Amino acid sequence: MRARYPLNSRISQPLQLSAFIFIVVAGLLVMTGWSIHDPALIQINPSFVPMQFNTALSFLLVGIAGIALIRQQFIAARAVAVLAGVIALLTLLEYGTGADFHIDQLLMQHYITTQTPYPGRMAANTAASFILAVTSLLLLTAPPFPYRLAISAIAAALIAGLSTSSLIGYAIDLEAAHGWHGMSHMAVHTAFCFFVLGATLLLCIRQPEQDHDGNSERWLPASLAVIAMSITLELYRAMAAHTLQAHETDSSFNPATVILLFGTLMSIAVVVAVRASQLANRRLRLQQQLSLQLDLSNQTLEHNLQSRIAEAMRLEMVLNTTTDYVSMTDLSGNLLYLNAGGRKLIGLDEQRDISTLNMADMHPPAQSALILDEGMTCLMAQGIWSGETLLHPRHGDDIPVSKVMMLHRDENGAPMFISTIIRDIRELKAVQDDLRLEAEQYETIKATTRDGYWLVNMEGIIIDANEAYARISGYSMDEIIGAPVQKFEIIESPEETAARIDRIMTNGFDRFETRHQASDGRILNMEISASYWPGRQGIIVFVRDITDHVAYDSEREKLIVSLDQSNQELQQFAYVASHDLQEPLRMVSSYVQLIARRYSDKLDQDGQDFIHYAVDGAERMQQLIQDLLLYSRVKSHGAEFQPVDMNQIFQQSLFPLELMIRESEASIHCETLPEIEADPTQMRQLMTNLLQNAIKFSRPDGSHQIHVAAERVEGGWQFSVRDHGIGIEKDYFDKIFVIFQRLHTRDKYPGTGIGLALCQRIVTRHGGHIRVESEVGKGSTFIFFIPDHKEALNEHG
């Protein structure tokens, strides 16, 4: 069951969870200090008492149990808490019986030089505090029973009192305050952890709701009194022990007695003050509720009285047309008249005789008794009574209504009859429920959002805000609420501010970016989301700190500019380098060919082969440079995108391949192709490369059929070039599009290894993608996609 844990709805769960995590971390740090021999973690100060290893372990266990309690994992919480309780109980038994259960140094050898009568053993008051903490945790996870929460709170209060007295002892150098006679003393950080633990356990107990032991406000003063009295008695014991130890015999002035009397008086004063504050708050709430009910009653009464005066001359018509219940009864409540609206509301037909009906029949028994007791008494004394009650119809559920009864007297002042007006307020109740839900959602959003929040009235004053904006801006809540927006927002243009307000009032919403100044002078970039809230007659503003995002975008823009500049320089270098390389290659090739023509008859076969290899190498190098130049200029020297008929592109791509087509006896079939937005030169280069690739890698003994097609797909056109060639293994589908990557030797299939890489670069420039589908021995299909959009993809430079 998960409904047993009474989490205080006024205190956020993160606060309690953080406290338990703090206790776990403190225990782990001290255990680490023992493990690594770090006295600073164990003692805080060399003259202070160390926190024993078992104490740190117990804090770890209690903190884990508290976290399990917050997560409503009650079985785990009990199990871990009991482990800590066993350690503490065994320690107390060792002190009480003088026995040694060998648990003091079971997990860690005591080596701290600070003098202690029981090395490694936690203090007796420490063990007692752990038993109180375990008791409080077990009660919080237990099924409800009388005084469960009260006992749990008192245990937590005792923990807070014992730890506070120890902290006071360290503060005033009263050694007896943090240790019991002849036993180990409580360490200063042990006392602080117990203070946090006691306070956290008190926060875990629900205040605004009921339990078996009644409203917790009744026993809250007792918890505070326990804290005060435990501090008083502990300090009294410590002072008395200190006085006895110092052999002070002057009985005319005993500091311990003064502390006891002062602490007792302060405890009584705390109880009286807290109880008085609770009573005052309760009285204020009751007055507010009564005032609200009185206002509603007065509004209902005023409305009905004004309606009656205004329509006095047409009373019969109004009574028969209104949907309200209107009746007249004698002084005993017997019905004398009931209008059509009243008959319909309670489910009576028009022919039903009402003389046998009584006003008491119109309400549930409990409501009738209340009206007879309070309503009639008030009516006879004041002449009028109004309130909310339930109407009991003949069929269906009871109906919430507002009711006004008026006593009519004769000329002598004697009572004559009673008129009653009843109105169905189901819709009003629904509206009230919606408003209450809206208010709850508003508070939830304000408390949980990570963004800053404002509620700004129509004069530009901040009337509500959340802690998130206080954290972002560095201002306190008191500095924010009641201040004008201009205190925080840097308004560079009053006209733009006025335009924003107009957009919010016209459209109900606006989003924009602005700058705020933090309390320390920092300028923060903010994203504002503002909405008009008619119910509050103001503007809801959510403020998001985007300072880091703006800085990131600025840095990114700088990097993009730098990258573009670098790319331009690189492309210029590639063009110049390739252009300058071609000239010496042409010269080498020309002179080698000249040697071949003039001296071929004087060279043997080896010499002629050498010249052939030199010419061939120079030509291949020249072709490679030209291909590299073409590859580097795809984006920098591309033409503007324009409507391109791909049928014409296909025909133009065949011209440079005529000789290759005749020699290979290839048959190329092309379906009707569409018109697209593209660079015509690059589309021609793309189609030529793919067709040349299909012809080059055809099977020597197979069909040389090549098929070109296109189909409409979502967002653009998909083209395909299919052949019946040698095919490609699946492992190389991606490799073939990498520049200079070849799957075959140059002797078998000539080329520079740039063709398909160039195809991919052209398709990418057009915003598309290219891929291959192939099976070895059966052929390949190259598929590329060109999207529809135009200007967004038209890149230059």
In words, what does this structure look like?
The protein has about 800 residues and is α+β, with helices and mostly antiparallel strands. About 50% of the residues lie in helices and about 15% in strands. The protein contains 22 helices and 17 strands. The strands form 4 sheets. Strands 2-1-5-4-3 form a 5-stranded antiparallel sheet, with helices on both faces. The protein has a 5-stranded antiparallel sheet with strand order 7-6-10-9-8. A hairpin with a 7-residue loop joins strand 3 (about 385-390) and strand 4 (about 400-410). Helix 6 (about 150-170) packs antiparallel against helix 7. The radius of gyration is 46 Å and the shape is flat.
- Annotation, overall tally of beta strands: 17
Described by the principal axes of the CA atoms, the overall outline is flat
The helix content, as a percent range, equals: 40-55%
Largest sheet: 5 strands, antiparallel
Biggest sheet strand order reads: 2-1-5-4-3
* Gyration radius from CA atoms, angstroms: 46 Å
Mean pLDDT: 75
Instruction: Please mark out the parts with pLDDT under 50 across 5 or more consecutive residues, or reply none.
Output: 1-6, 207-216, 248-263, 791-797
Q: Structural class of the helices, strands and pairings?
A: alpha+beta
Q: In percent terms, what proportion of residues is strand? A: 15-25%
Span of the ends, CA to CA: 69 Å
Number of helices: 22
